[in-house]
Amino acid sequence: MPIINIKRDLLFKALQKEYTDDKFAEVCFEYGIELDEVTSEKDIIAREQGEDKAANASEDVIYKIEIPANRHCQSTSALRCCYFTKCNPNIGTDTYSSMIDLQEKLHQNICRRRALVAIGLHNLDTVQGPFYYDAKAPEDIKFKPLNKDKEYTAAELMELYKSDGHLKHYLHIIKDKPVYPIIYDSNGVVLSMPPIINGEHTKLSTNTRNIFIDAKIVLDTLVTMISEHCGQKYSAEVVDVIQPDGKVVTYPELTTRHEIISLKDVYSLAGISLDTEKIAKLLTRMSLSTTVINEKEVKVEVPPTRHDIHIAIAYGYNNIPRSMPKSSTIAQEFPINKLSNLLRQEIAQAGFTEALTFTLCSRDDVSEKLNKNLASSKATHISNPKTQEFQVVRTTLLPGLLKTVASNRSMSLPLRLFEIADVVIKDDKTDTGARNERRLCALYYNKSPGFEIIHGLADRSMQLLGIPFGKSDKGYYIKGADDPLYFPGRGADIIVHGNRIGSLGVLHPDVISKFDLNMPCSALECNITDFL
Known about the structure:
Elements: E1 3-7, H1 8-15, H2 21-31, E2 34-40, H3 41-49, E3 61-66, H4 72-78, H5 93-108, E4 120-123, E5 132-136, E6 142-143, E7 152-153, H6 154-161, E8 180-184, E9 190-193, E10 197-198, E11 211-214, H7 219-227, E12 239-242, E13 248-251, E14 257-262, H8 263-270, H9 276-285, E15 289-292, E16 297-302, H10 311-315, H11 335-349, E17 353-354, E18 360-361, E19 380-381, E20 392-393, H12 398-406, E21 415-426, E22 434-445, H13 451-464, E23 476-480, E24 486-496, E25 499-507, H14 509-514, E26 521-527
Parallel strand pairs: 17-21
Antiparallel strand pairs: 1-3, 2-3, 4-11, 5-8, 6-7, 8-9, 9-10, 12-13, 14-16, 15-16, 18-20, 19-20, 21-22, 22-26, 23-24, 24-25, 25-26
Organism: Trichoplax adhaerens (Trichoplax reptans)
GO molecular function: ATP binding; magnesium ion binding; phenylalanine-tRNA ligase activity; RNA binding
Protein name: Phenylalanine--tRNA ligase beta subunit
């Protein structure tokens, strides 16, 4: 969910009221949002770029507020100082940053990461209407993109941005299409190539006086947020849009819609038993004009500044009465969790320390660093990773344990670690296209490999699971395997009931060095789901 940064003093000025940090956190919760962190611009830059970069940064207190996908419009209204901009007067630095932040947050939620809507904000004084929305072949599109000093064709931009941490996530929307969308003015000046990038020619700055917005679904939200700080408050110039069939439509529409709410719906959705008069008062508190139709229904007028109606928030989440479920059930621990807990206790008693590592990791962690091919890892990829460290869902527990060892190299040797947790494997036979697998992973790190210790842990685990040693259908044994993860001749598969459930061995020196380690290490990893 998107997180917005708001300067505390500007927020309190807009609300005409001040709060302590704890009290404001309570207010946010009651409103259906969450105060994620209290920080400052200086602290943020110091964490992300280093202390040197933060030397001249502002120390103004910043509230980082998490906005759920269903709360974008009410939240921006209530915390509107984060999103102010100006269409006619000068745009200050804070206002400019807030305006860009609004655009990006809308892209993240209601715009479905630009797949549904791409918002373009342009300096109107640099272009000449009318404006044209067209589609052209990539090689026929050429312009200077935002923050670049030379022109590129659309095909060249696709190559340029495939390594860009921000824009690369949107390239797939149009990359394989025969034509790309393009917006240009009457003189052929390119405004943007949605949903990828705007042109440098219409770039906004703190000196911009008039803003041209190309968007539709979120247009009302943008206009109502921006208009409060126009030269003439709450005003915006309309634009006539000529559609392909010749019909002329005027934007922004700024329409008001009406909704009928019944007592039955309120009770079934929120579990609140209220009369129509009480509902009308609550919605009035939320700045929604409400009329009582009869004893069972109310009519609500929803302005263009809003997209939702939240009676439960007005009533107060903490005021909703708790109730017992209508059906009684008896809780029981999942068998896989019970088995995992029993194994944890025994492995800890064997002298191993349990670790809890991240479920997400980098692509290299499950492939290149383990001397394996990424395609063979069957990893589930994250479409919008925030960092390179969290690109895929782990397919093995080993990288997490190796990173833990690397972070604790100063501790006395040997290091014995284990983890029992889920990994996710792609599987076309399942409804979701992937399946969870509960794994046991352990490693031993010391001046000598300690293969016998890991082998002994495997024997002990099988003993606890009631699996005798032997090559019968009811037993287990280890079988030498040529696995690039392990040192040649020092790796083996674990065979149980005739099926491979995992492996163990001395890790290959290349694997160890890729995790910034310099001593031998033995490891064991196996699937315990099949033992249920």
